[in-house]
Specification:
A 6-stranded mixed beta sheet has the order 2-5-10-13-15-16, with no helix packed on it. The chain has a 4-stranded parallel beta sheet with strand order 1-4-9-12, covered by helices on one side. By secondary structure, the chain is of the alpha/beta class.
Length: 160
């Protein structure tokens, strides 16, 4: 079995390079602690309208928009701290996502999301609120679950 963890340093370097281009060249307001997939898409038509808070994760193929050309709409899109933006979700222009939120995979967010909420669907609706989250939108119990998984994996010789 091939261990791909040896490529993590290269991936981190590539993500850091993309962050530098997005913030220094395009002028986006993305906190240096934000983690994102290399395939995440950030609107370059109105780049100064993208704002992402600390310790947030943007998964693969997610799109963060700040303009709608058909309506001549250019609005600031804000994502708070400790959020998780799911794979292939779309955050429409002018949306504010509060702190400690999870946006489900494939969700299309068309309205503001209150802090400590989980939204999913098309259009995205709040499915749970009042949830405390940690860094990168993880549940408080996630560390224990992760530890148990890796212990089981090691006990099985890496074939969990």
């Amino acid at each position: 079995m091939v261990n791909l963890n040896k490529f993590l340093k290269v991936r981190r370097l590539l993500v850091r390079g993309k962050w530098l281009v997005l913030t220094r060249f395009w002028g986006m307001d993305i906190d240096p602690t934000v983690e994102f997939s290399l395939s995440a898409r950030f609107d370059k038509t109105f780049p100064k309208g993208i704002h992402i808070g600390p310790k947030t994760y943007v998964a693969f193929d997610a799109a963060i928009l700040a303009h709608d050309r058909t309506r001549g709409y250019y609005k600031h899109t804000r994502i708070g701290r400790n959020c998780f933006i799911g794979a292939r979700s779309i955050i429409m222009p002018g949306i504010t996502i509060g702190d400690e939120c999870i946006v489900g995979s494939g969700a299309v967010v068309t309205k503001d999301v209150p802090s400590r909420s989980i939204v999913a669907g098309n259009p995205a609706t709040v499915i749970k609120s009042g949830i405390p989250l940690k860094e990168y939108g993880s549940y408080e119990s996630a560390d224990e679950t992760r530890r148990l998984f890796w212990e089981q994996d090691a006990a099985n010789g890496g074939a969990a």
